[in-house]
Specification:
The protein is 55% helix and 0% strand. By secondary structure, it is an all-alpha fold. It has a domain of 139 residues. It is globular and about 50 Å long. The termini are far apart. Bound molecules: zinc ion (ZN). Zinc ion (ZN) binds next to loops.
């Protein structure tokens, strides 16, 4: 029997659990009130929330950012390599092949999806930030950002980019879409407008506007150098 406090935390964190996102609980776990669910949720809380559990760089970065909650959950799954890439599905024997069905040029693991697959690589190239592909998942939070832009905004922009790269991948697989790096970059710029209201401080809004202006400029000026497949 969980204490009221533990039960409350259990229900709150359950809403963010990848098991809940997947529509089921882990084996031996009948629901959020069970001891197994509680154990899983306490673990997730420790990785997502600052000031609880061991320090965890990704959890701190994700949870303190102002991206929408759906993007935060996505980011957590990204940095834990829990996304349903073909490599992960193959490892679980759900698929027979891990080859990327977008480019047929390699194993579709998280690095391929977000940095190597031509459309994704094209987006980074358009932003003049291809160097991030060589960074570790810890160092990417502190990637060199373009001059004259507020580096404090980078975690927000980074998650926005990753979110749209995953959406583009899913669009190809599930919606028969074939987005170009230009259209993906354009959607990222649009997201920065839609999510701008999440910032209350005028200087933060100004910084985000500068980032968006940079994205728009790059998307336009690099059209001749970045050719989509
Ligand atoms: Zn690919």
């Amino acid at each position: 029997m969980l204490t009221p406090s533990a039960n409350q935390r259990c229900k709150r964190a359950a809403r963010l659990s990848p098991f809940v996102l997947a529509g089921h609980y882990p084996p031996g776990c009948s629901g959020p009130e069970s001891s197994e669910a509680h154990r899983q949720i306490v673990h997730i809380e420790g990785t997502l929330e600052p000031n609880q559990g061991p320090p965890e760089v990704h959890g701190r970065r994700i949870w303190s950012s102002r991206v929408p909650n759906k993007v935060k959950v996505f980011s957590w799954l990204y940095f834990k390599d829990r996304l349903s890439t073909r490599a992960n599905l193959c490892a679980k024997s759900i698929l027979d092949t891990d080859q990327c069905q977008r480019c047929s040029a390699g194993t579709q693991d998280w690095h391929h999806v977000f940095f190597v697959c031509p459309t994704s690589a094209g987006v980074w190239a358009r932003l003049n930030m291809s160097h991030v592909a060589a960074l570790s998942d810890v160092d990417i939070w502190n990637a060199d950002t373009p001059p004259n832009l507020d580096a404090k905004m980078w975690p927000f922009v980074l998650q926005s980019i990753l979110w749209r790269l995953w959406d583009a991948r899913n669009g190809t697989i599930f919606r028969n879409e074939h987005p170009s790096s230009r259209s993906v970059s354009s959607k990222i710029s649009d997201d920065l407008v839609i999510w701008r209201k999440r910032f209350k401080n005028d200087s933060d809004v100004h910084s985000l506007n500068s980032w968006r202006a940079y994205l728009l400029y790059c998307n336009s000026s690099n059209s001749s150098t970045v050719v989509d497949p």
